[in-house]
Amino acid sequence: MLLLKITIFTPLVAPHGRALLRTLFFLALVVAAVGSDNARDLIGQGAADLAAQRFEGALKKFTAAVKANPADPQAMFFQGVALNRLGRYAEALARLQHAAKMGSKHPDLEFELGWALVALRRPKEAVSYLEQFEREHPGRGQTSEFLGRAYFGLREFDKAEDAFNEALRRDPTLKPTVSLGLALIAQERDQHDAVHRHLQTVLQETPESPVSRALRSRVDRLSRLAALPQAMETAWGLSLSTAGGYNDNVTGVGDTALLPSEITGKGSPFARFNFSGNYGWRTAPDNTFSLAYSFLADVYSKVPQLDLRDHLWQAEYTRTFTANLAATLRLSDEFAQLGGDNFRNQTTVRPALVVRWNDWTVSEAAYSFTFADYYFPAPPVLDRDSDTHTVLFTQYLTPSHGRVQLRAGYFHTWNNADGADFDYRTHGVFGAASVSLFWKLTADAAYIHNFDRYANANSLAGLNSSAITGGFEFKRADDVDTVTVRLSRPLTKRLRAYAQYDFNNADSNIRFFNYDQHVWSGGLVMQF
After folding, report:
1. Smallest Cα–Cα separation from 48: which of 9, 72, 22?
2. In this structure, how many other beta carbons lie within 10 angstroms of the beta carbon of residue 113?
3. In whole angstroms, what is the distance from residue 462 CA to residue 34 CA?
4. Helix 55-68 / helix 73-85 crossing angle, nearest 10 deg
């Protein structure tokens, strides 16, 4: 899920803001003020700067007016107005409160106080001022928008939604910030489709608005996660799943292969259990760390010798350089057991660079190094202990307002094994799609094709069913196709059901490694 750690309390001056500044400018000229002519002149000059959005210049003029006449509440009020627009909310609040104590009767005082308090995350106080301003001066769109932010801070989401919708009705130019506010409400309600829809509205309809620029630069790893919306949306996450199904070739070898006597068949029903958890945090706005652990267990009723227990630990660091450029470094360790015996441990280091070309196109280039240690005893020629180097390029696309998510890419692998039989080079292509359908259904499909070319003559090359001698006559070559199709649907806010089909085909020039595998499964996933 998309992480919405975007503040909506940035100083924005849209067309509605310019109208407000013209009002303030007019009031600055007509509201009676106590003070010197010099102070009044400075206030008039500052109001002109406000209307032209020269906020630094306006602040200097109002500060000079305060010095010229410290007893003038109007100068103090407008100093707070300029500070609000510069995003210096704590200072703005102090000036506005001082102006109120000095007896300022400016009609926008409560509005400006509410603005500063909303931005300072003091929603209860903000609501008091903004509701008072709404009663006395009804109809301003920005008032409703600020009230929506304040109600959101109080977690009164129904009132916040009503206020945001009223703001948009009053002033359509508020759509960027209103859409972001509605996305935040949808996130709190776990309405993930609505979150994505509101964010797409902002990015596509107002691509150059301050909100769109903030989204592109500050959403957690947006450059990568725009194409991968299943992102961590809180500091922690848990997932539990259970499934059952049937695998018609658990061993993953050809029909002519001789199996150990204790394995009477290759097909078996199975049960699957999975647990995963993650925790992430930021040390700075551009630095993110995450830790994750996952456990997977497959239990086969007919071939318990192949029951799988798999543990995966992972740590990842992400650095965002610009709105369109980010890098990640991932460290992982995987430990697997088969039939209760230790099978393999492999450690991987994976740096990657991510470039976002636009709101729906993202590219990733990655390199990984893996060291694999296999525990089962084997003759030297069959020793699979290895170090593996892989380069990978992935292109992510999210057309159709995010309802369709696509990815495709290419990889090349160099596997340097201790045993001659498993020393190989691979290059491959892959593609995947995720589509939102009717009735809240989501369809996912993925395809991978490997061209595996082994470096040495294989010990089984040349053997056949009528001879047990020979071998080492030619090099092994496999073409491997992997297909996954999955259909899922939420049942409740946290519970999802799915049905899945997996197909593997290895077309090898050595019969032992030539096989098909079909796996049907279905289950439930619960996320927290």
Report:
1. 22
2. 25
3. 105
4. 160
Considering the domain architecture, whether residues 164 and 65 belong to the same structural domain is answered as yes
- Contact predicate 457/475, CB 8 Å: yes
Separation of alpha carbons 182 and 148, rounded Å:
9
Q: What does the pLDDT look like over 333-352, one tens digit per residue? A: 999 999 999 999 999 999 99
The one-character DSSP state at 441 is: -
Q: Looking at the structure, do residues 216 and 259 belong to the same domain, yes or no? A: no
The single residue listed with the structure tokens 């909100």 is 211
Torsion on CA atoms 141, 142, 147, 152, rounded to nearest 10: 100
**For the whole prediction, is pTM greater than 0.70?**
no
pLDDT per residue as tens digits for the range 181-220? 888 888 888 787 777 787 777 776 666 666 666 665 554 4
Cα separation, 370 vs 372, whole angstroms: 6
- From CA 92, how far away is CA 85, in angstroms rounded? 9
Lowest mean pLDDT among 218-227, 243-252, 359-368, 516-525: 218-227
The C-alpha atoms of residue 396 and residue 433 are separated, in whole angstroms, by: 10
User: What are the residues whose beta carbons fall under 8 Å from the beta carbon of 247, sequence distance 6 or more?
Assistant: 267, 268, 270, 300, 517, 518, 519
* Count of domains observed in the chain: 2
| β-strand partners of 453 | 425, 477
Look at strands 442-457 and 386-397 and give their pairing: unpaired
Q: Which domain holds residue 435?
A: 236-527
Contact indicator for 337, 308 with CB cutoff of 8 Å:
yes
Residue 88 in domain: yes
Measured distance CA(85)–CA(180) in Å, rounded? 20
